[in-house]
UniProtKB/TrEMBL annotation:
Domain Core, residue spans: 15-118
Record-linked InterPro entries: ATAP, ATAP_core_dom, FeS_cluster_insertion_CS, HesB-like_dom_sf
Species in which this protein is naturally found: Halovivax ruber (strain DSM 18193 / JCM 13892 / XH-70)
Gene Ontology molecular function terms on file: 2 iron, 2 sulfur cluster binding; 4 iron, 4 sulfur cluster binding; iron ion binding
Pfam families recorded: Fe-S_biosyn
Protein name: Iron-sulfur cluster assembly accessory protein
Organism placement in taxonomy: Archaea, Methanobacteriati, Methanobacteriota, Stenosarchaea group, Halobacteria
GO BP: iron-sulfur cluster assembly
Amino acid sequence: MSTEPATSGEATTRIEVTEEAASQALALLEDEGLDTDIAGLRLFVQQGGCAGLSYGMRFDDEPDEDDTVYEHHALRVFVDPASMKYIEGSVLDYEDGLQAEGFHVDNPNVVSECGCGESFRT
């Protein structure tokens, strides 16, 4: 699948997704009974956390009209314009280690993170 935006919005910088993250997200989408040809993972930024901003993820049935849609390893990723300015250039990965398991955003725009790694500042 293409790593270029699939639909609306001209992206100057990509959002990348590792193969492991895509595989995990697709399995979860299918468990929810969602059509992976249309539905996808929404990656967004919200106010909160001790550093000021935090990442959010959820499954959506389809992208919003103003979303940029990326497709990596058959996973569709939806990013709204407000979130894009904070997370452009990021890589979504899935970590499976002794201390933590789950999705992780490697964001080149972050200037500081809180001690627990749940929130950040750009």
